[in-house]
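A.,

Following up on our hallway conversation. Structure tokens first:
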């Protein structure tokens, strides 16, 4: 899951980004409203977390601009302004949830999970490639009725491949969407995870779903 975090307090922003990374999310971070708007307009995110009070362009203005161009990803507003009227204004502007500061990081995670789950319920709860099925609601995968045990990063990698089934997925695409922009392009982390994934979903089946496209990337057939 890819999240855009827009928070002008760098210490807070870096703390949130680090915590989200540790919980398996890929995070783009912007400290300025204008930078956040640029990221949101030019990239696809599963969720945006946005401070309401931002330098330059404030959070509510960003939300209104995103909604005006049909950007429908869930948006969680963070703000020190916690009275009812402020919350109502944020939700009417197009926010999906509003979390007043200070808050526990565990509550932030719970709000994120709820918004992502709601988004999946709207967009569809499952994906399929051949006999492989992925349930996006409870993060499980099966092939031929056999349950496959996957770690969070393996699940996200498999989900991304299946969403792009029958199309070549490059290493750069995987680094940007499953991992983080800051990973060294020469790292073998993708190869290691693909190898683990193959051992789990292809090992006991005649048809191998994950194909290596030499010098380019990978493709899952469905």
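Then the amino acids I'd put at each of the 222 positions:
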């Amino acid at each position: 899951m890819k999240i855009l975090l827009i928070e002008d307090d760098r210490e807070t922003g870096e703390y949130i980004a680090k915590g989200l990374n540790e919980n398996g999310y890929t995070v783009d971070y912007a400290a300025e409203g204008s930078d956040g708007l640029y990221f949101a307009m030019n990239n696809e995110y599963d969720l945006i977390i946005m401070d309401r009070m931002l330098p330059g362009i404030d959070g509510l203005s960003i939300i209104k601009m995103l909604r005006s161009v049909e950007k429908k990803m869930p948006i969680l507003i963070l703000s020190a302004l916690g009275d009812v009227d402020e919350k109502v204004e944020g939700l009417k502007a197009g926010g999906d949830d509003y979390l007043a500061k200070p808050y526990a990081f565990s509550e932030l995670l719970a709000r994120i999970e709820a918004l992502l789950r709601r988004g999946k319920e709207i967009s569809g709860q499952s994906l399929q490639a051949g006999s492989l099925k992925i349930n996006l609601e409870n993060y499980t995968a099966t092939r031929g009725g056999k349950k496959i045990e996957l770690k969070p990063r393996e699940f996200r990698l498999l989900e991304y491949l299946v969403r792009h089934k029958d199309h070549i997925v490059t290493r750069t695409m995987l680094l940007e969407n499953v991992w983080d922009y800051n990973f060294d392009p020469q790292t073998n982390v993708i190869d290691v995870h693909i190898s683990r994934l193959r051992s789990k979903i292809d090992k006991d089946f005649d048809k191998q779903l994950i194909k290596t496209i030499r010098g380019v990337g990978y493709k899952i057939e469905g």
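The longest strand covers residues 2-6. Curious whether your intuition agrees with the design.

B.
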